[in-house]
Amino acid sequence: MSIHLFYVLGSVGLDIIANLALEKSQGFAHKGWGILSIVFIMGAFALLALAVQGINLFMAYAIWGALSIAGTAIATRLVFGHKLNLVSCLGLALLIGSVLLMRLGH
User: pTM of the entire structure?
Assistant: First the structure.
């Protein structure tokens, strides 16, 4: 496994944290959480920029997007109690499956 994949995974982690902070900010009503979300998303894109030095952009972005969306859905369920219905779960499965198919075809 290359270091570039670890950059993508680190970027995913920072993106999920940024999304949780954004939710906590309640639409920037709590400025500290809002600023924290901006800092984390900047870090996420910095790591993504490092990742594309060794991974094709479309693949890095597809992995990042799918894992960030799925991770955010799971994290908001755990932290804030947001509900995931069957259709949402199927959508997440399709999203992750599509990235896996892209990877196999690459």
Answer: 0.90
